[in-house]
Amino acid sequence: MTVQTPKIRLYVEHPLGQEQQVGLSREQAHYLFGVMRLTTGAQVTLFNGHDGAWRAEVTEAAKRGGTLECRAQTAPQTLPPDLWLLFAPIKKARTDFIVEKSVEMGVRRILPVQTAFTNSERIRQDRLQAHATEAAEQCGATYVPEVTDLHRLDRLLGDWPEDRQLMFCDEARAGQPATLPHSPGPWAILIGPEGGFSDDERAKLHALPFAHAIALGPRILRADTAAVAALTIWQTTLGDWQ
After folding, report:
1. How are beta strands 83-87 and 65-75 bridged, if at all?
2. How many CB atoms lie under 10 A from the CB of residue 158?
3. Which Gene3D superfamilies match (predicted)?
4. How far is the C-alpha of 23 from the C-alpha of 201, rounded, in Å?
5. Which of 77, 120, 117 has its CA nearest to residue 98?
6. Judging by DSSP bridges, how do beta strands 109-114 and 83-87 pair with one another?
7. DSSP 3-state of 227
8. Going from the N-terminus, what domains does the chain have, and what CATH number goes with each?
9. How many Å apart are CA 131 and CA 181, to the nearest integer?
């Protein structure tokens, strides 16, 4: 008899393995037993970013906690491509959209950056990390990308890893072909703010030996749309969509 994979997926910060007991936090217990109405004997899928996905059974259900027990691994651990997404935060809902869609589309790390024209000077890193976790739960991933705190773009580029290529989306090239060098290895994508890059930022980016300017079609895109478009171009050219 084929055992169906449970529809509910839950990220846990706990080792997973055969017959491993997993305790639930109050928030997790509320979600499973209060919101989803699960009871003892129900099954969920667990993942922790290291041990793949596991089918687990509810062995104890309570309002403020509970216990699950791993029964069988349902998927091996997989990682997205070694791709970072750098983006300038915009309005709250659109920033949330960028984080969620980048997880769904497959990135290894998410880095909000402050540029000359960035609208926001601060972010709620913990809230964005929670959005990344929820996106991984929804899309079937076994890995949750780290969402870092806000970095100044100039400082980040000043300490850039030598082996990581950078694709930056330059609205000044609108209408030109979207071409990338077929260079394997680590990459990053940089999406500018709604006001675009400053002239100084654009000049410095073009001067970097590891940076590659790319156009995203004939029209200037909104920042959240640009993130999805850029990720699509990279994934179909160099990533795991090939």
Report:
1. unpaired
2. 9
3. 3.40.1280.10, Hypothetical PUA domain-like, domain 1 (2.40.240.20)
4. 48
5. 120
6. parallel
7. helix
8. 9-75 (2.40.240.20), 83-238 (3.40.1280.10)
9. 32
pLDDT score at 3: 55
Q: What's the CA angle centered on 11, arms 99 and 71, to 5 degrees?
A: 150
Tokens 């029209």 label which residue?
219
Cα 38 from Cα 29, distance rounded (Å): 10
Please, what is the Cα angle at 64 between 66 and 33, to 5 degrees? 65
- Give the model's confidence band at 213: pLDDT under 50 very low, under 70 low, under 90 confident, else very high: very high
Q: Are strands 165-169 and 146-147 parallel, antiparallel or unpaired?
A: unpaired
* CB-based contacts of 138, cutoff 8 Å, min separation 6: 9, 104
Q: Give me the residues paired with residue 191 across strands.
A: 87
Amino acid letter for position 107: V
Note every long-range contact of 150-155, with CB atoms under 8 Å and residues 24 or more positions apart, other chains counting.
Answer: 150/89, 150/112, 150/113, 150/114, 150/121, 150/122, 150/123, 150/125, 151/111, 151/112, 151/113, 151/114, 152/113, 152/114, 153/86, 153/88, 153/113, 153/114, 153/115, 153/190, 153/201, 154/201, 154/204
Q: Is 88 helix (H, G, I), strand (E, B) or coil?
A: coil
Three-state DSSP state, 187: strand
